[in-house]
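FAQ

Q: What does a record look like?
A: Structure on top, sequence underneath. For example:
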């Protein structure tokens, strides 16, 4: 009888070169893979088979079954092997060149059959308990951006980063001159209507002035919140896709920022808000401000078919019922042509390199495919990063399975699962969540997707990271209370150590670290809009800033952190140890994270040096919440 510790494992090799891809459950279309399972002798296995079926979420499930051939023993294990041709799988199960499939191994042991699945990289588990294994076959044309992976992403909410003082306030807008102590405009309760017409004056010229500072953080990409003309300070209510808002400096300011950033090796990524426009826009024109004939004004408007009216003109689809954000029919050919042939082309010609897609779940497959084709026809290196809050490999939205990653519609996604799991691990010692958000998702995603994940600790839609690490009593407070709530000095000092620990984790994991402006300065903030305070130029936390600069430059200079393989060495409540190994196996880096408030000693064999060049013979001691990256 087999013992519990006698694990059955799966290994995969791409033919004809026998490249080991055992850590991954996503295969490039057109590839041929040899899958093998190694069964300890204690099981006395007689035979094995693999059973694969189509996703079936939106139709009939189709099945394939292959027997495994018995091979020569390896390290005392019985070995069974099968050749999987991805073209055959797609032809038989998906009717296209990519697809999402699920499979299990069935191993005959005496009178019993073991059904094996689970989502560990190589270790197989009881499929009845842990489910089948996921296999994605993805488009053969998919790839990642080498430029984006070279450093971190710096995420800027434009109105709150830096003002040049050169952009006049538009009629109807209000300027709050108290940059250091002003409070963002807020509603009585979350979701209450707010004009969002109070600005602090940040602009694109101001960002350009601070490019040396941004570069010092190790940035290779600046991700801007929406910049197109709109009434609000957040600009998610687009009024004109072909014009940069004058309060942000206009078209010239964006062109200048792209050109100047390029001198520092930094690319610019825009926030593409294509699921909805503003009601006060050229296209809808509910307020009659523009000289165009908007969809709200006439059914003969060239923009009428862009929107979905229930009862014309006052009842129409909008984003989450917010009437100032009428939803666009993203399958409409006229709208797709406008975005692709005019908007994308104009701004990429102006120097924009990448796009982040707001609420990607609500955009149609037709729109995403057209956008991807257009963007990559202009620049094959461009990345399209989708706002997806869950596992993007098997995402379902509006009753449909999405093919973001398998079809190549998205280059990668925002990594909310990692953000949530890192916070849960540091605050509560949740190892299962962290294992899923790393080991499991890296197995499910194509490697190029994992390498380009936007790994962050906070965004304009979440509480500030330092606040989450330092204040656990804000959940039921009103907006009035949150607007003035701040941590004590002691609470913030403790939270700062957790914040640096968290950043040390995401800097060493697959994906691109993303810093929301001000996190590196210790900026506090609760839910929207309090996470959008102006950058604290006069009160930067020196300890946090130093750590962020150090980690950002390590991330930029260490090539192993860009595309190496990932493997968990140890994950417990007390510490997280993982390895990044070069694809060719020539070198590796071990990240050691102390998840306690006490000193911790990590032991190893031989002598290792850290990334600063200091040697450690057999052990290294980490301070509370400390970290170290070791190399052989």
């Amino acid at each position: 009888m087999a013992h519990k510790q006698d694990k059955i494992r799966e290994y995969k090799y791409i033919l004809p070169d026998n490249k080991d891809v055992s850590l991954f459950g996503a295969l490039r279309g057109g590839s041929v893979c040899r899958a093998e399972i190694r069964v300890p002798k204690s099981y006395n296995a007689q035979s094995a088979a693999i059973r694969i079926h189509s996703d079936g979420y939106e139709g009939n499930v189709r099945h394939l079954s292959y027997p495994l051939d018995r091979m020569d023993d390896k390290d005392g294990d019985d070995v069974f092997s099968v050749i999987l041709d991805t073209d055959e799988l797609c032809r038989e199960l998906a009717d296209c060149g990519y697809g999402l499939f699920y499979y299990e191994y069935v191993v005959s042991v005496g009178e019993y059959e073991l059904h094996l699945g689970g989502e560990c990289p190589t270790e197989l588990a009881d499929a009845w308990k842990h489910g089948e294994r996921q296999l994605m076959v993805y488009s053969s044309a998919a790839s990642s951006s080498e430029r984006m992976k070279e450093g971190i992403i710096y995420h800027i909410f434009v109105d709150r980063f830096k003002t040049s003082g050169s952009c006049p306030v538009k009629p109807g807008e209000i300027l709050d001159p108290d940059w250091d102590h002003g409070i963002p405009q807020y509603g009585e309760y979350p979701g209450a209507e707010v004009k969002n017409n109070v600005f602090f004056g940040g602009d694109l010229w101001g960002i350009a002035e601070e490019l040396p500072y941004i570069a010092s953080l190790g940035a290779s990409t600046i991700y801007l919140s929406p910049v197109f003309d709109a009434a609000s300070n957040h600009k998610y209510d687009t009024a004109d896709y072909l014009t940069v808002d004058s309060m942000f400096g206009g078209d010239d300011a964006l062109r200048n920022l792209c050109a100047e950033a390029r001198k520092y090796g930094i690319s610019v990524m825009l926030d593409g808000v294509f699921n909805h426009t503003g009601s006060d826009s050229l296209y809808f024109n509910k307020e009659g401000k523009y000289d165009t004939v908007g969809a709200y004004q006439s059914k003969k408007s060239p923009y009428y078919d862009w929107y979905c009216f229930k009862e014309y003109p006052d009842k129409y689809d909008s984003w989450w019922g917010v009437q100032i954000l009428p939803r666009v029919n993203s399958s409409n050919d006229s709208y797709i042509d406008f975005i692709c042939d005019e908007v994308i082309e104009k701004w990429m010609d102006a120097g924009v390199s990448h796009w982040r897609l707001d609420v990607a779940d609500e955009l149609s497959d037709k729109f995403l495919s057209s956008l991807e084709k257009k963007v990559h026809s202009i620049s094959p290196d461009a990345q399209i990063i989708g706002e997806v809050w869950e596992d993007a490999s098997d995402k379902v939205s509006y009753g449909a399975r999405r093919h973001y990653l398998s079809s190549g519609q998205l280059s990668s996604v925002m990594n909310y699962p990692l953000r949530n799991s890192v916070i849960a691990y540091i605050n509560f010692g949740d190892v299962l969540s962290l294992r899923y958000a790393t080991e499991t998702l890296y197995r499910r995603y194509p490697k190029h997707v994992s390498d380009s994940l936007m790994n962050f600790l906070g965004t304009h839609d979440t509480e500030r990271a330092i606040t989450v690490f330092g204040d656990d009593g804000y959940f039921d407070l009103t907006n009035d209370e949150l607007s003035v709530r701040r941590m004590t000095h002691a609470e913030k000092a403790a939270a700062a150590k957790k914040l640096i620990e968290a950043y040390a984790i995401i800097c060493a994991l697959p994906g691109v670290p993303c810093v929301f402006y001000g996190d590196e300065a210790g900026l506090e903030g609760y839910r929207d809009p309090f996470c959008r305070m102006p950058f604290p130029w006069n009160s930067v936390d020196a300890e946090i800033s130093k750590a962020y600069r150090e980690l950002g430059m390590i991330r930029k200079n260490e090539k192993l952190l860009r595309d190496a393989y990932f493997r968990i060495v140890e994950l417990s409540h007390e510490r997280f140890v993982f390895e990044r190994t070069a694809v060719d196996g020539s070198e590796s880096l071990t990240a050691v994270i102390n998840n306690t408030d006490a000193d911790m000693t990590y032991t190893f064999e031989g002598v290792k040096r850290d990334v600063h060049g200091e040697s450690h013979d057999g052990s290294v001691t980490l301070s509370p919440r400390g970290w170290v990256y070791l190399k052989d």
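Q: Is there anything notable about this one?
A: The CA atoms of residues 136 and 329 lie 29 Å apart.
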